[in-house]
Design goal:
Shape: globular
Mean pLDDT: 95
Strand order of the largest sheet: 1-2-3-4-5
Number of helices: 2
Number of domains: 1
Distance between the termini: 33 Å
Radius of gyration: 14 Å
Largest sheet: 5 strands, mixed
CATH topology: Trna Endonuclease, Chain: A, domain 1
CATH class: Alpha Beta
Low-confidence stretches: none
Length: about 120
């Protein structure tokens, strides 16, 4: 069964949010948009009270390589800029934060392979 790009992204983000919640994270916001960018998930890590900006990459096959390899230097720069805009938009000045990546492979829709990279960049 092939999913369209939008449905695949939603499934990946839903799964990442579920895993974070199971780990005790508080989901602050999902699909935060500002201008032409988006942050998939913004969460609070209960261990260190750190705000976590999460990028989720989901794929159905390895035709274009592992999902995590699509997080290029330019994409990292864009995510950092979006995080800065989020903090500015919310009036947050002093906060610890990090950037996590979820790479999810849905070759088997019922048993996806999930890699969670904390402090990925």
């Amino acid at each position: 069964m092939n999913l369209d790009k939008k449905e695949l992204a939603k499934r990946g983000e839903d799964l990442a949010a579920k895993i974070l919640t199971e780990k005790g994270f508080e989901i602050i916001e999902r699909n935060y948009r500002f201008s032409h960018g988006e942050i998939d998930i913004i969460a609070m890590d209960p261990k260190d009270k750190c705000t976590v900006f999460v990028e989720v990459k989901a794929r159905q096959n390895l035709e274009f390589g592992e999902p995590e390899y699509s997080i290029t230097k330019n994409k990292q720069k864009q995510i950092r800029k979006m995080a800065e805009l989020y903090l500015f938009d919310k009036g947050i000045t002093e906060i610890d934060c990090r950037f996590d990546v979820f790479a999810i492979l849905f070759e088997d829709l019922n048993n996806p392979q999930v890699n969670h990279y904390e402090n990925a960049f």
